[in-house]
Amino acid sequence: MSKNISVSLHHITRVEGHGNIVLDVKNGTIEKLQWQVPEAPRFFEAMLKGRDYNELRPITSRICGICSIGHSLASLKATEDALNVEISKQSALFRRLAINGENMQSHILHVGYLAAPDLFGVGSVFPLVGSKHQDTLLKIVKLHRLSNEMSDLICGRTTHPIRLVVGGFSLLPTKKQLIKLKEDLHLAIKTSQDVANVVSTVANNFPNFSRETEYIALKSDDEYAFYDGKIASTDTGIHSDPKKYESVMQEYVVPQSTAKYAKHNRESYMVGALARFNLNSSQLHPIAKQVAKMFNLKSINFNPFMNNVAQLVEFVHNIEDSILLIDKLTNNGVKPERPVKAKKTSGRGVGIVEVPRGILVHDYSIKNQKCVEANCVIPTNQNHANIQKDMEKLVPQIMDKPQKEIELNLEMLVRAYDPCISCSTHYLDVKFVDS
Amino acid sequence: MKKPRVAFFDFASCEGCQLQIADLEEEILDLINIVDVVSFREVMKEHSDDYDIAIIEGSIMRPIDEGRLKEIRENAKILVALGACATIGGINKIRNQWTPSEVKKEVYGNYNLKGNDFFDVFQTKAVDEVVKVDYNIHGCPINRDEFKKVITSIAMGKNPEIPNYPVCVECKKNENICLFELGKFCLGPITRAGCNSICPTNGSPCDGCRGILKKPEVECINDILERYNLDYEEMKRRCNIYNYGKEVCK
Fold this sequence. Notes:
The complex is a heterodimer.
Chain A: E1 5-9, E2 20-26, E3 29-36, H1 44-47, H2 56-61, H3 68-82, H4 89-120, H5 134-155, E4 164-165, E5 168-169, H6 175-202, E6 214-219, E7 230-233, E8 237-239, E9 250-252, E10 261-263, E11 269-270, H7 273-280, H8 286-294, H9 307-332, E12 347-355, E13 358-367, E14 370-377, H10 379-398, H11 403-416, H12 421-424, E15 431-432
Parallel strand pairs in A: 2-15, 6-11
Antiparallel strand pairs in A: 1-2, 1-15, 2-3, 4-5, 6-7, 7-8, 9-10, 12-13, 13-14
Helix pairs in contact in A: 3-4, 4-5, 4-9, 5-6, 6-9, 7-9, 8-9, 10-11
Chain B: E1 5-10, H1 16-22, H2 27-34, E2 36-39, E3 53-57, H3 63-75, E4 78-82, H4 84-87, H5 100-108, E5 135-137, H6 144-155, H7 167-173, H8 198-201, H9 218-227, H10 232-239
């Protein structure tokens, strides 16, 4: 084929942060294909140096507006690990509710507002107002609002939570509020099944693409892991020492990106909803399993576009899980508790949680209550290399399509990863050049 | 009346303030009744450079960003800074205590970044340190109700009112127990209100994200420091989470 393509998509839309795609094809040969991350670097690791251990949580929350609860929890777990703080069972249940609320909020925002317009063939959700999909849109809005209200209730605020503090919570919801939340969650199950039904009718618009890669996520014997678990890989199994996370998440710097890249057993790996599904699908709650079946999603699935579907599956799982958590909390009666105090003033701690886009690590060294060293490994960073490798396989398969379609497929690929670039610089654009 | 055309732009930030707008849910529909959103990269593919009101999120870190911001200013009739990163530099300014080469070394190690524009950073600037800002919407994140109020005022050609009294006023109205009484160091007395004292109401001290008041009550603050046996230096240190390099009253 002697085709020339020149694509330069600058600042891809409907993703969090700035990314570019550059594709240059001459006489059917790819001369340049680059996933670039030009987001302004923000230097969080440097910001934390010298801060009081209580300030690490509010500062690192600001790494990301969408997963601020996840960053907060990884931060608290790292601080608590360093200073030997053991939180109460009740606090651990509330933190699981917090992580569910955020995962729901982020997944429905992504599937409903950012990814779905591609499936319905529109540029944003705005044109869906007044269209035949208005009813679905309103259901998505309702689910998104419920997710946010849940986070507000547990964390004091959805974006940049307030109540999450070292040792527990600064304020807790009442039993009455939790029971009301549970009723709303019950109603949301049906609403989310309706949304899943509509999405399944357009799911054939997801490109049929597959590339074998490694998946990494937390794994636990007790549950579909979000808050706690061990690092696990589909290639190499369980890595049980959390403090040796760097032997799995090997970060490196590339010139086209202010966000770091990462690799482990292969040239790249993937984290996020699909990685979690591939590793832990047998532990999903029953209705979530039904939703996976609706889309014929089975482990192991190597199609990155199915990450959107895995997000929908997890959304339902998070609802079912939250109902069970609320039952546990209300059966015991919500006890007023003060945050547990630190037993030590110095130490190193590692906190690992699953946030909407994948496995997140915070690692702090604290000396006399002040942070002396910090490292954060961000999910989107871990996906950048995998996005690049997917593009390298996808482009030759779609090269004979019209340029617009190539562009759309590449953008959809990036969106499927739901990248959170602000996070990863703690950086997204697509560049095509048509000759 | 022709609806004003609004465009959103983001620089170094967590994009959490734009997310507050997506989080308006059904109320977004009210918003698009009074303005036309012509650019909002986080949620829409369409983009236009023909706009009246530019809303800027994030701090300015690099020459390439400075150039982009100046172009936006040229295009816009009204420029609004959205959120702490834009209005006061916010937490992005914490790193200004070190030089750019020091922080680069801290994060990227000895990797050779010379001549790479993406990595060419200067010390963090708030938006008004680069271009003229007409209105500020404060907070980390912004308060959704205040956003609606400010945009409605601007769309109607009125001057939006931004509080210039301390968070304590709202905190008292919410009948909270003063956090100083609970042994916490709260920046409410010197911080601009408008957040409905959300942090103290949830049991956490104010970190000053809405910026320090133009004229804080110095006498009252000295009185608090004395009464609770607190140190001015500690207050300064607390202030530099959001207000690094700002003069703190004494």
